[in-house]
Design goal:
It holds the Pfam family HTH_3. GO terms for molecular function: DNA binding. It comes from Alkaliphilus metalliredigens (strain QYMF). By secondary structure, the protein is mainly α. The chain has 2 domains: about 5-60, lambda repressor-like DNA-binding domains (434 Repressor (Amino-terminal Domain)), CATH 1.10.260.40; about 70-100. Helices cover about 55% and strands about 0% of the residues. The chain has 6 helices and no strands. α2 (about 15-20) crosses α3 (about 25-35). The protein is elongated.
Length: about 100
Amino acid sequence: MIRIKELRQEKDFSQIQLAKQFDITQQTISNYESGVREPSITTLKNLADFFNVSIDYLLERTNIPEPVGVLGRKDDYEEGLPEEARRQIESFKEFIKQKYG
């Protein structure tokens, strides 16, 4: 099953409001929620981003809702590190941006 209904209700959205957000019909949302129809990978990604959860959480493959952090965000991974380590992280991020960006 899929957690769209649960997440939609947590945000206090109706099916119609969620459908408008994604430019799809209310019936499509209803079909996703009832399991009649499965969302595409792109739709799953967009829904996960909208609800700020991982796709695995959306698909009930995990009970951990938070998406995995990515480098570039100031996430908890830097907490508790000495200043020198933080500078090295920033330096490495700049190196990656220059090389691949």
